[in-house]
Each structure stands twice: as C-alpha cells, then as structure tokens.
Design a protein that fits this description.
Penicillin binding protein transpeptidase fold; 939 residues; 9% strand; alpha+beta; disordered C terminus; membrane; 5-stranded mixed beta sheet; elongated
Length: 939
C-alpha cells in the first residue's frame, strides 16, 4: 500500500516537475520572443528617428536662420502699416490721395478693452500667462498634424505668434512657418510687453474692405473710433479678422452675426461676460454703418505728380535714364529695365506712406482748365465712353523756377486720362525750332539772314498751301514755316545730330526707329511727342538754352524714412548756345508779329514780349501752339482722341487762342520783360545781302569747326566700313591677295587724316592684326603667285598688242570718217542752193573733185547719186534776177503792213485823247456828284 502511495507520489512529483519545466520553457520562449520584438522595435525606432532627423534637420536649420534674421532686424516700426499717400500743391493744399487702406495706428490706450477681451477669449485664452507659445494648443495641433499625414489642418498659434505671422511671414499654413513662429514668439515676449503685443495685433489685422488695423475697421463698419467699441461690435470685428471674406458683414451678414455670437459665447465661457450681459449682447441688433471714407483721388495734377515722384525715386537709385537708342536691341533692353523700375516705384508710392509736395498751382490749374474747356466748348461730339471726341491738353512751366506749375490732360475734370504726359502726338512744325533751327544755329553755319532755296523736289516734303518762294532767308523760312527749308537744314546738319538735342532735353517717347528719318524735321516721329516735353523744350529756349530737369516735385517725404529728396539738386545743362537761342527767339517773335507769321494776331496783351511756333500736321490731325515769355512757357495741343482730319483748323486757331488766353491771364500785372542780348551777338548788315539782322560773333569759327567735324565724321564712317570689310575679307584666289594689299594701302593712307588718336590707333591695330594673318596666307601661296604673275605678264603683253591693233583700226576709221565728212560738206553746199548762184559751177566742181575721198565707202554709190541729183536740180532753181525780184516783193509787202499798223495806232490815240478830254473835268470835282456826294461801292 505504502509502495503504491510512494509510486503515486513520485509520479505526481515527476509530473509536477515536468509541468514546471514545461512552463519554464514556455516562459523562456515568450521572453525570447518579447526580447526579439523589443530589439526589432528599437532598431525600427532608431532608423525612423534617423530618417526623420535627416529629413527635418535642414528645414529646422532654415527655420533657425529665418528666426534669427527676423529677430535681428525687428523694431516697433515693423508693426505699423503705411498710411495713405497724399499729394499737395505749392500752397500745401491736398490735391490728391492714394487710398492705401486709410490706415491709422492707435496705441493700446485707444483700443477698447472689449476688443482685447474678445481676442483673448476667441484666439488665445492663456495669452496673459504663457511666454509666447501655448504648448497645450501646440500639442493639439501636433496631434492633428500626425492624424492627417503631415498636413496642417488647424492652428495652435497664440496672439504673439499671429503678430509674427501678420508682420513677418505669409498666411500659408506650413511646417516651416509654424516652427519660425515658435522660435520667435518667446523672444518677442522678452522684448515687448503683453500690452504692446496686443496693440501690435490689433493694428496689423486685416478686416476686409481695404481696412487694415482696428481703427480703420471701427470707422468703416461702425462709424466710431476703436476706443468706443461696444462688446458686440468688438466681437464682430474679432470674428471678421479670423476670415475677412467668410465673415464679411456686408456680403455675408448672417455668417458674420453667427461668428459674432460665437465670440460672445467664448467671452462668456471665460467670465468676461456675465450670462445676463451675454444674452443682451447676442440679442443686440446687427447694424453695420459702412461709413464711406475718401477713396483714391486721381486727377490731372495728382496723376502727373505720382508719375514724376516715381521718376525722382528712380533717380535716387541712380537709374541710368536713356532717351535715344542705337538700335532695336538697345531700345528693347532699356524699355524692359525702365518699365520694371518704374512699376516698382509707382507701386511703392501707391502702397502708401508718402507725402508728395509739388509746385503745382491750383489757381493757375483752374485757369488753364477753363481756357481749354472754353476754347473747345463749341465741339460737343462725344465718344462711346462719354468723353469728348475733340480733346485738348496744356502744360505751363514757370521759367523762373523751371517747375511745371499747371498740367491739363483733357476737357473737364471728370476725365482722369492725362493726355499731357500719357499721350504722344505728332508735333508738326512746333518741333522745328528744337530739332532743326536751334541745332543748326549752334553749328555756326546757319543764321537769320542765310539764304536757303525753298523749292519742291521729288520725294521731298510739300509746303502748307503748296507755295514755294525760291531763295529765302532762314528768318522768313521759319516765320512762314516752310517745310522744304526745315527738311534741308536737318539733312545738312545731320538728322541724328538734331535728334540728340531732344534726348538732351529728356523727351520720353523717342524710338530707335526715329534714327536717320528726315521727316523728323517737320514732326514726323514714330510715336510722337508729349505735351509736357514740348513745354520743357520751349522753356529751355526761354532760359537761354539751359535745360533743367525739374518736373513738379519739390520734395518727397516718407513716414518711416523722412525727407527722401533733401539731398537732391536739379540737373542743368546748356543744350543750346546762348547766342543761338537769342537769335532763334527773335525770329520766333515774328510768328505773332511778322506779316507772314503763322501766328498773326496772337501777340500778348500789354506788349509782353513773347516768342512761339504753330504746328499743324497733315490734314490738321494734330494742332499745336508752343510759346514763351521770360516768365512762363505754355504748350497746347488740340486734336481728336482718335486722330482724324480737322479741315480749316490750324495751330493758330484753337490751340493758339487757348495759349493766348491763358498767357494773358497769368501775365496780368507782370511788367513787360525782354531777353537781354548776349555779348556774342551783334546787329549788323549781312555782307552778302546787305540785310541787317543778328549775327553770332563766334559763328564763323564754329562753322569751320562744324565743317571739319562733318568731314571727320564722314572719314570715321568710311574708315570703319573699310576696316570692317577688310576684316571680313578672305583669300581664296591669287586675285584676292592683290585686293587685300590694295585695301591695306587705302586704309593706311587715310588713317593719318583721322583726328581721334585713340580711334586711329584701334583701327590701325585691327588692320595690322588682320594683315598679319593675310601675309601668312600669302607667303604660303608664293609659288602660285609667281606663276600667276608670269601669266599676268603674258596676258598683259597680249592685251597691249591687241590695244595697239585696236588703236590703229580706230585711227583708220577716224581718217575715213574725216575724209567722208569733207565730201559731205561739199555735197551739202550743192544740195542747199536756193537759186542759180554765180558760183554754182565752182561748188559743183569742188564736190566732184572731192568724190574720191569716199572711194571704198559702203555709201559711195549713194553719195554719187545724191550729187548727180543735186546737179540736175540747179537748172530748176530761180535765176539770180528772179530770186532778187522775189526778195524785193516780200520787203515791199512787209513795209505796207507796218504802215497800215501805224495808221491804226494813230487813230486809237486820237480816240483815247478824246475820252480823256471828256472825263478829266470830273476828277476831284465834288460839284459833279451833287448834294448827295459820291456814295459807297461796297455791298
């Protein structure tokens, strides 16, 4: 029994042991599996961390760099936006405004606590306690980031972070932007107080409808200052700034109201609103005032001022302005640079923050506008856009300051398109003083009494009216505005020479296509010219030939950078010689005073000395008058918006009368003032014509220099062409080697005649370099050249032999022709007999004797027959007595006819004497007409 129990116990223990061992085995296996899983997981984690680090580290480094750059340059000014750009006239009166959002920065003391609390409740409930980053909100946003596969779907930004976003970053939700916010936020909290940050936030938020900052939004939506916002108004603004388009109370009032109530609920939840106040606020009426503030105000004055301000800012950047161009590539390259720079400055001005102070005189502006409007009032036709079809534009420059003081770009004040500087029209004859006569006088070759032939030629211009006056003085040609003379003058002095004068005066609409175009002399430009450029050009004449680049800008201020133009001074240059301009001005006075001046009747009141020029293009499509005194210059253009013919309209009609009207007004109470004669100008008689006029005492020297300059320019062009062709030459045959040597000799012979030493050296170097290349080739062809020269010698000998034979043949033919002519003279003497002259037999014998001279001639028989016919004809001619009788009868008949004519004249004389006796007693005899007098013959 005991044994049985022992065996049972042993088996039980053994079973338990095996069970224990099995359990330990299972546990060991489980432990090994767990360790394996942990190892694999750790390896995966390390790999994943490494991959993430490699991927994210560059972006983190970029974020750190970005955050450092922002922090290093941070200032309070960054948190303030720009106010509207304002333009002022010469008296400091506002004449224009560019709406940049009507921004106005307000400090925290003038921002309602209701709005501050609304933002804290809705946007950042831990604003007052965190240090720039709300890590709870950030963790929540991080979970969302992981959940949506790395895509940012919700924010966790504090107000501090939003200030950073509004000021320094974009509105795009990106990982990089978020990291930069997190890095910068604590630093800003260290630098600025919570009140500062709230102030920045309220002033940098956008509220829709061009409202930047809480002050602009408060005034637009509620018609009050930000300090006076009620709790429900503050909640409305807090909701709008979250998404200005979605919660626009004007476009989406219901959505905006719901958002307002949502903000109020948040304020209630944090204890800023009691339940009672919350209920009252959500039940408050949703009223939007939508206060309309002053919008962008652009008119003729302000648009021109903005244009000029952009140019001034470009000058501050040292932009390389250019006005004439070598070719299309030069023109296009410049235009691309100019448009980019100009657009940048124009956009900058329109972005706000500028105060532009100008020379524009609002009183004078009104007078100029009235002169244009009244002068064209009889033309009432309208275009489809409601604007007048016939338009006008004018610019006034104060010659004493060189500023533009008035600019009118069209009829009426409603049309904002400023044709005075935006449009380019063909100037007609008004361009002649600037591009033809002024430059021509500067050369010294032209002067008022110089004679030029006014005539029509093929492919040349026509004069207005079709009249041509032959040799005329330059003075008369300009007063009559003769196109043919202007054309000849510009062609003589050089088209581009004259064009460069316009470039010196900064004409802005010139093109490379205008180069070398002779029609420029009478105003035929590719695009035309601007009224303001013509005014500045004539103002240069008024100021003794000195151009000043002033426009209408007196100073430009920026609210951040102060007076930008304080160190800028106007650029001046002597474009025309003083003596040239004095003589030219004296001629242009004749436009109004000369019997044949094209502007007769436009002289100014009070005997104010004035000079000017009319301009009328083909079919009167554009008409101009440009004129000046010592005080002011005014340029006026009249024409249809879409160019069309204006029969009977000329520069002296509407444009001229508008000019006279405004000039008379602005010269009221100003004493007459004439130009002073320069010391280099004298009044004397022309040595050739005896006509007394003005002359420059230095003209002869300048004329000689001008002639020399022309010769040098011609030589320069010729040598450049020769060297270019020499460099392009290649040697392919032996003949080419001779051509190369000839070209080389021609170039080196002419080079010493060139004055420009640097150019001479460069051309010589190019020539020698190329000739060295040719000599290498020529030396390699030496054997061929020797054989060629031998062949040339043989050919030359053959040619000489042939030439001698040809010469001998020509001599023989000439001798035959001479002998034949001798016989023909004798034959003609016989054939031309009119009667049987006494020496007829001798003439016949002479002809018969010379017949051998034509022996062997192909016409020998024909000539012999002619002589035989002539001999037989003699017997049919009248005898000498018959011939004399005929002559006597003809003389008697002629004498009788003359006698009859004398008798008729005597009879006519008697009748005329009788008429005189009958009529002469009436002359100066008032008694003959009776008591009533003579009466009138006019209808």
């Amino acid at each position: 029994m005991i044994e049985i129990l022992k065996r049972i116990l042993v088996r039980a223990v053994t079973g338990l042991w095996h069970l224990f061992i099995s359990i330990l085995g299972i546990l060991g296996w489980l432990l090994r599996a767990l360790l394996t899983l942990l190892t694999v997981g750790l390896i995966c984690a390390v790999i994943t961390a490494t991959v993430l680090y490699v991927k994210v580290k560059p972006e983190l480094d970029q974020c750190r760099e970005m955050a450092y750059d922002k922090l290093a340059q941070m200032s309070r000014q960054d948190f303030s936006m720009l106010s509207d750009t304002v333009i002022y006239d010469k008296d400091g009166n506002q004449i224009g405004l560019i709406n940049a959002g009507h921004y106005e920065y307000v400090d925290i003391g003038h921002i309602s606590l209701n709005l501050q609390n609304a933002y804290i409740a809705q946007e950042d409930r831990r604003f007052k306690s965190h240090t720039g980053v709300d890590w709870i909100a950030t963790f929540r946003a991080g979970l969302a980031l992981v959940k949506h596969g790395g895509k940012v779907t919700q924010g966790g930004s504090t107000i501090t972070q939003q200030v950073i976003k509004n000021t320094y970053l974009t509105q795009e939700q990106t990982f990089t932007r978020k990291i930069v916010e997190i890095l910068l936020a604590p630093e800003i909290e260290k630098k600025y107080s919570k009140a500062d940050i709230m102030e920045f936030y309220c002033n940098t938020n956008f509220y829709g409808h061009r409202c930047y900052g809480v002050q602009a939004a408060s005034r637009y939506y509620f018609g009050k200052d930000a300090a006076d916002l009620t709790v429900y108004e503050a909640a409305t603004l807090a909701g709008i700034s979250n998404s200005p388009s979605a919660y626009d109370p004007v476009a989406h009032p219901q959505a905006s109201r719901e958002k307002r109530n949502d903000v109020l609920k948040s304020m209630n939840e944090i204890g800023e609103l009691s339940d009672e106040d919350y209920q009252a606020a959500i039940n408050a009426p949703f009223t939007i005032v939508q206060s309309q503030t002053e919008g962008t105000d652009e008119n003729y004055q302000s648009s021109y001022a903005i244009h000029c301000a952009a140019l001034e800012l470009m000058k501050l950047d040292h932009f390389p302005f250019q006005y004439t161009y070598a070719d299309k590539a030069d023109y296009n390259a410049y235009l691309e640079k100019y448009q980019a720079a100009y657009s940048e400055k124009s956009d900058l001005i329109r972005a706000g923050g500028f105060k532009i102070y100008t020379s524009l005189d609002s009183g004078l502006q009104a007078e100029l506008q009235a002169s244009v409007d009244d002068g064209l009032a009889s033309y009432t036709e309208l275009q489809d856009n409601g604007k007048y079809a016939l338009q006008g534009a004018g610019v006034v420059v104060d010659n004493r300051t060189n500023y533009v003081v008035a600019i009118v770009g069209g009829r009426g004040s409603e049309d904002q398109f400023n044709r005075a500087y935006l449009s380019a029209r063909q100037p007609g004859s008004t361009i002649k003083p600037l591009i033809d006569y002024g430059p021509a006088f500067d050369t010294g070759e032209y002067y008022p009494t110089r004679i030029v032939d006014d005539h029509k030629w093929e492919d040349g211009p026509s004069n207005s009216g079709g009249s041509y006056y032959g040799p005329v003085t330059v003075r008369e040609a300009l007063n009559r505005s003769l196109n043919t003379v202007a054309w000849q003058i510009l062609d003589d002095i050089g088209i581009n020479y004259g064009l460069n004068y316009l470039g010196e005066m900064e004409f802005q609409k010139l093109s490379y296509v205008d180069n070398d175009v002779p029609s420029l002399s009478i105003g035929g430009f590719t695009y035309g010219v601007r009224v303001v450029d013509m005014a500045k050009g004539y103002s240069t004449l008024a100021n003794n030939g000195v151009y000043n680049d002033r426009t209408c800008i007196e100073r430009i201020e920026h609210e951040h950078d102060g007076n930008l133009t304080k160190d800028m001074t106007p650029a001046t240059k002597q474009v025309y010689r003083e003596d040239s301009v004095f003589m030219l001005t004296d001629i242009l006075k004749g436009t109004m005073t000369s019997p044949y001046g094209t502007g007769r009747g436009l002289s100014l009141a009070n005997d104010m000395p004035a000079a000017g020029k009319t301009g009328t293009t083909n079919a009167s499509r554009d008409t101009w008058f440009c004129g000046y005194t010592r005080y002011y210059t005014t340029a006026v253009w009249v024409g249809y918006e879409i160019p069309r013919d204006m029969p009977g309209v000329y520069g002296s009609t509407y444009a001229g009368k508008i000019w006279k009207n405004i000039m008379d007004k602005i010269h009221t109470d100003l004493p007459p003032l004439d130009w002073e004669q320069p010391e280099t100008v004298e009044l004397r008689a022309d040595e050739k014509t005896g006509v007394e006029d003005y002359f420059s005492t230095t003209a002869q020297l300048r004329a000689q220099q001008s002639l020399h300059d022309k010769e040098q320019q011609k030589l320069t062009d010729e040598l450049n062409t020769m060297v270019n062709e020499f460099e392009a030459k290649t040697i392919q045959t032996v003949e080419d080697t001779y051509d190369v040597k000839t070209r080389y000799k021609n170039i080196t012979t002419k080079l010493p005649l060139l004055d420009d030493g640097d150019l001479r050296a460069r051309l010589l170097e190019r020539t020698e370099t190329k000739y060295d290349e040719f000599e290498t080739i020529i030396s390699g062809m030496n054997d061929t050249i020797i054989m060629y020269e031998k062949q040339r010698a043989v050919d030359a000998a053959k040619a000489q032999e042939q030439a001698e034979k040809d010469a001998e043949k020509r001599r023989e033919e000439l001798e035959k022709q001479t002998r034949k002519n001798e016989f023909l003279q004798a034959l003609a003497a016989v054939e031309e007999l009119e009667y049987q002259k006494p020496d007829a037999q001798q003439l016949v014998q002479d002809a018969i004797g010379k017949l051998p001279l034509v022996a062997g001639d192909p016409q020998q028989q024909e000539l012999s027959n002619r002589l035989d016919t002539a001999i037989n004809r003699i017997s049919t001619l009248p005898t000498a007595q018959e011939w004399q009788k005929k002559l006597d009868e003809e003389a008697a008949k002629k004498a009788a006819e003359e006698s009859q004519a004398q008798q008729e004249v005597q009879a006519q004389q008697k009748r005329l004497q009788s008429t005189l006796s009958h009529e002469q007693f009436k002359w100066n005899n008032m008694e003959f007409y009776g008591p009533g007098g003579r009466g009138s013959d006019e209808g």
